From TrEMBL:
It comes from the Eukaryota. It comes from Caenorhabditis remanei (Caenorhabditis vulgaris). Keywords: Membrane, Transmembrane, Transmembrane helix. The chain crosses the membrane at residues 16-40, 52-76, 96-114, 135-156, 192-221, 241-259, 279-298. The keyword GTP-binding does not apply. This is Serpentine Receptor, class H. The keyword Transit peptide does not apply.
Length: 335
């Protein structure tokens, strides 16, 4: 029986696995910094209502990225709730909580962007009830994201006993430590950690989807009203902006949901695949860079700055004309 961590010369090889994360970290840091620059200094005034929400979501994505690809580099032995940290930080109890809490905060920050669109476009001045309850709901959502994974820490098993039980259930030889780093066992087979993760995901998504549907329906109805004070062009631009925000948030969300779905299925069917476990973690760590690149290229103000920067870096002159606009958003339209 081979070791659960062995030199297999593939993605499950700890040397290759660690190198992948180091390369990702080196690539993503400058991209994330450029994303912060775009949000803070290149966001047009028409998008000012979402500037700080986008920055909040972006920073949380950056922190989640770095916590996985730099601090932790988790090598998991799923479907058991165990693993070892290969990153610069060797404190798995803290790392697990930090990563999962940041996931919850990222999802809530996405909800916050959708809620802001609903509030600014429809509720402000028209829906006094929502104006009154929106902040308490936001506080509750953020508190839930911070606290949802605390329950599993009340039932962390005795590590020696849990190790013996877990080692018997794996098709490979699980050592109690690797290169001086102890294997951490969050649970000895109970599904509480998975239930907590599913709970916060389902609850938050059930808030995001209705908000998005309501916003789109209201924008469509608003555009059809002939007596509406808002022009059809304004409605169309607002609709495009909402769709752009959805693309920006949904595309990286898939990179979070796919590994979570695989891990959930693997838990229920008790399936162990070392390479898929490692691949799911790599895929998971790509969500931040995907989010930043999507944000940069989906919003024209950021896209123009990015293209201009690329031309300057390669000392190329970009062909321009006087009719080229910096933003697709007319100055008179407030988003």
């Amino acid at each position: 029986m081979e070791d659960c961590i062995s030199n297999s010369y593939d993605i499950a090889d700890p040397r290759i696995y660690t190198m992948i994360f180091h390369v990702l970290t080196a690539i993503e840091i400058p991209i994330h910094i450029f994303g912060i620059y775009c949000i803070l200094w290149k966001t047009p005034i028409q998008m000012s209502s979402v500037t700080w929400l986008m920055l909040n979501c972006h920073i949380l994505n950056v922190l989640l990225d770095l916590s996985i690809s730099f601090l932790s580099i988790p090598f998991i032995f799923h479907p058991t709730f165990s693993g070892v940290s290969l990153g610069i930080l060797d404190f798995p109890e803290l790392e697990v909580y930090l990563v999962l809490t940041l996931i919850g905060l990222v999802v809530v920050s996405i909800w916050g962007i959708y809620e802001n669109r609903y509030y600014v476009l429809f509720a402000k001045g028209n829906n006094s009830m929502w104006c009154w309850i929106r902040k308490p709901i936001m506080v509750i959502n953020y508190l839930r994201a911070i606290m949802f994974f605390i329950p599993p820490y009340f039932v962390i098993p005795n590590q020696t006993e849990a190790y013996l039980k877990t080692a018997k259930g794996l098709p490979c030889r699980l050592e109690p430590s690797y290169d001086g780093r102890k294997v951490f066992l969050l649970s000895d087979g109970q599904g509480l950690p998975l239930y907590c993760i599913c709970f916060v995901f389902v609850l938050t998504i059930s808030q995001c989807i209705p908000l998005f549907i309501v916003i789109i329906i209201k924008l469509i109805l608003q555009g059809r009203k002939k007596e509406s004070a808002i022009s059809s062009r304004t409605v169309k631009i607002r609709k495009k902006f909402v769709i752009a925000l959805v693309i920006q948030t949904v595309s990286p969300f898939f990179l979070i949901s796919l590994p979570v779905e695989y891990l959930a299925i693997a838990t229920f069917i008790n399936y162990y695949n070392r390479s898929l476990n490692c691949f799911s973690m790599v895929l998971f760590s790509l969500h931040g860079i995907c989010s930043t690149l999507t944000m940069i290229f989906i919003h024209q103000p950021y896209r123009d700055v990015t293209i201009d920067t690329i031309y300057k870096l390669f000392a190329m002159k970009r062909k321009t004309n006087n009719s080229r606009k910096i933003s697709v958003i007319p100055p008179a339209i407030q988003l």
